[in-house]
Every structure is written in C-alpha cells, then in structure tokens.
Amino acid sequence: MSLGTLGATERGVAPARSIRGSLRVPGDKSISHRAALFNALGRGNSQITNFSPGADCGSTLSCLRSLGVTIERSADRVSVDGVGLRRFQEPPDVLDCGNSGTTMRLLSGVLAGSSVFAVLTGDSSLRRRPMARVAEPLRRAGAQIDGRDGGRLPPLAIAPVPTLHGVEHRLNVASAQVKSALVLAGLFADGDTTVVEPAATRDHTERLLRAMGANVAHDRLTITVQPGPELHCVDVQVPGDFSSAAFWLVLGVLHPSAEVRIQNVGLNPTRTGLLTILQQMGAHVELENERDVAGEPVADLVAWSSQLHGTTVGGDLVPLAIDEISLVALLGLCADSETVVTDAAELRAKESDRLAVVARGLSALGGDVTATSDGWRIRPSRLRSGRVDSEGDHRMAMLFALAATIGDGAEIAGADSVAISYPSFWADLERVAKS
Ligand code: S3P
Predict the structure, then answer these.
(1) Residue 323 annotated in active site
(2) Is the pTM of this model over 0.70?
(3) Which of 253, 267, 272, 263 is nearest to 300 (CA)?
(4) Which residues pair with 78 in a beta bridge?
(5) What's the rounded Cα separation, in Å, for the pair 51 and 327?
(6) Max Cα–Cα distance, the chain, nearest Å
(7) Ligand 1 proximity of 393 Cβ (cutoff 6 Å)
(8) Quick one: which of 44, 85, 217, 406 has the most CB atoms within 10 Å?
(9) Of 38, 106, 202, 396, best ligand 1 pocket probe by most atoms within 8 Å of the beta carbon
(10) Residues 183-232 pLDDT 10s
(11) Backbone angles phi, psi at 419, to 5 degrees
C-alpha cells in the first residue's frame, strides 16, 4: 500500500488487500499523564518507561517543567524528580496545555491547592471545551478559579488560597478527568473529600495514588480521599494504550482478510468496554499472555476477520469505551443489521464534536450514519472513496484511515493530528496494510 502525503496535513489512504502483522502501540496516554504529574507531587525520583510519545503527554511535561519540576526524557523513558505537595514554583508565564483536556483538568485540581498563581490555556480545540465541570466543584471546595465566560471556558486562572476544604461532590457527568481533578484537590484539603460518580470511569488515578501512599478508598462509585501523607515516588512501567490498540482490533475484525496481533496492551477493566461491544457483535478477538504489570492488567490481543451483527450500545458501557465509541459507527456500517448508540452525548465535548464529525465523515465515504442527540443510528453500507476532514481530532483521523483501508480509499484532511496520541500511526498502518 502506498500512502501519499497530499499537503501539510492531508493524506491519501489506499484500500488494502489484506491486514497482517504484529504491532506494539504507544504507552498509555492516561497513565503517562498521571505518572508524570503525581510523581512530580511526590518525594524522591521516578523512572517512567514506555511513556506516551504523544503531544498531549508532552504538554503535561512542559507544564510541569514551568512549575519548577526537573524532568529528563530520553527515548521512551522519563525521569521525574518529585518536589512534594505545595512545592511548585509560580510559573513565569501562562501554562500551555496544547490539545490536552487531561492536562488542563488534572492540573486545575492540583493547582487549586498549590499556593501559586497560574493561568492554563490551550489550542483552539481545548479553548472550546467545557471547564465548569471542574471549576464549579473546585470553587465549592474553596478554590479561587476563574476563566472565560464565568469560568466555563479556558483560559483558566487559578490563585492561591490558604487551604481547600473537604467536600462531597456528586458528579452529574461520568468523567475520569473531573473525578481525578477533585481527588487530587482532596490531597490539599483540610478534611476528607468524597467524589460520587454517576457511572464507573477509568480508575488509573485511584490506583496510582494508592501505590504512592495516598489514603484513597474506592467503593464502587464512591471515592474518598484523606489529606495527609506525603506521596512517595514510584517507578511506572506504562502499558500499551488500549485506545490506540482499538484501531488495530477494529481493522482486523473488519477487513475480510486479516490477522493482526497487538502486543503488551493495558486491559484495565474501566477501559475495555470496546471488548464487550466487539463480543456482542460476534467479533473474533482473543487475549493471549495475560499478566499484571505494575498494578495494571496487560495482555496481547489478536483480531481476525469477522462477520458482525448489529447491536445497541448505551448506558454504563459508554464511559468504559468513551474514546473508542466512534469506532462502533464504523463497525455498525459493516454489520448485518442496524446498530444504535445512545447515552454518548459526551462525545460532543471531546477534541471535536465527535457525534457530528463521525456522521459527516463516514457519510462522505458512503456510510449511512445519522447523528442523534446522544449517539448515532448506523445502517449497513458499502463504503466508497471520498475526502474527509478529521477537523483536527486525532481519533477522527485514525477512524477515517480505517474506513479508507477497508473501503475504497480516502483523502484525509488533518492527518497530522495523530501526533496527539499516536505519532507512528501512519507508519504502523503502512506496515500492516498489504496492497
Ligand atoms: C481521560 C478521560 C476521558 C477520556 C480522555 C482521557 C483521562 O475524558 O476521553 O481521552 O485520562 O482521564 P473525560 O474524563 O472527559 O470523559
């Protein structure tokens, strides 16, 4: 298969005759952010291996450096010298979170209790994303945090306060970023902080903070954090990112002549809703070599060409597949009957309005996908070639690349956006897609 670069960010993707090969995906983005940020708050040194090469985690590192944290990076290894709680230096300039919602929201929670003045901004996509969901509960805990539109939009400005208070937060949105921001703020509070989620979301924050000595209790949807002990730095071996592996799983399942293996993938059960959906649809996917790495379950995944059935996806399954749900639209186009996704309105608040961008892009390639208020209605369709726009959203660029590879090719605008989470995506696609 040949991939021609059509312009700065436009890329041609040809259909593939078969999909074959074995891949290693980048280190998990969510765990990499947390490993760097939490260890910066600890005492000692941390060696983080297989750190995500994505630009998002680079944003977290550069913000931490501006806060006075010594960080060295070579290949996929990052060394963080922890400064301890409340020991950040006041940053000399605005902190640029780039495209990364995780950087902005988790840092907001930490900075709320850190006794420095800081302003957080980001690129045009991040500056459109909702921040009231973190700013309002942080204010209820005593934080001084403001932003554009009454604190609803970035930039956010956070000013020092004498202390934060222990508060009970009942969240009305299932968001690991919001949960994490509030749990982190709880480390700086004068009493216990409780966060109650409406549905389970990824729990990397709870796992890593506990490993670092924090008093974090987790009982189903309730997380309680007690302020107190200094955190001790821990080394972290970051597993491969399930959200990146998901693209190869789906490509393997959808292409009529495919066998693809993805090695060393993190399988934290709060991340693997897509495996449940694939099983519901009758996909042939297997786990091999299951093991535990640094407190997170890991395995190799293998996917084969499969005949898929239409399905319905909604409810508590959605947060467990929040970054993979867009792939269900493509799976549905190749199934034997209609697929319906509901309860996914949160996708409108991601790097792009994914409900709209998926429907627009897959429709441009011949797919019968209709966006609803909280999901899509997807009918089996034959894909044809066309031009699609990722609208700067990394996961949309990769989704459309799969549609082009199993269908009739496409020109994809905004192809460079893959650098946010998966810089080697195009090279890996060339390796597995055989012409
Ligand atoms: C993330 C949580 C999710 C996810 C994002 C990473 C995290 O966002 O979509 O890619 O690392 O906590 P929300 O918390 O906004 O759902």
Answers:
(1) yes
(2) yes
(3) 263
(4) 48, 73
(5) 25
(6) 63
(7) no
(8) 406
(9) 202
(10) 999 999 999 999 999 999 999 999 999 999 999 999 999 999 999 889 99
(11) -60, -20
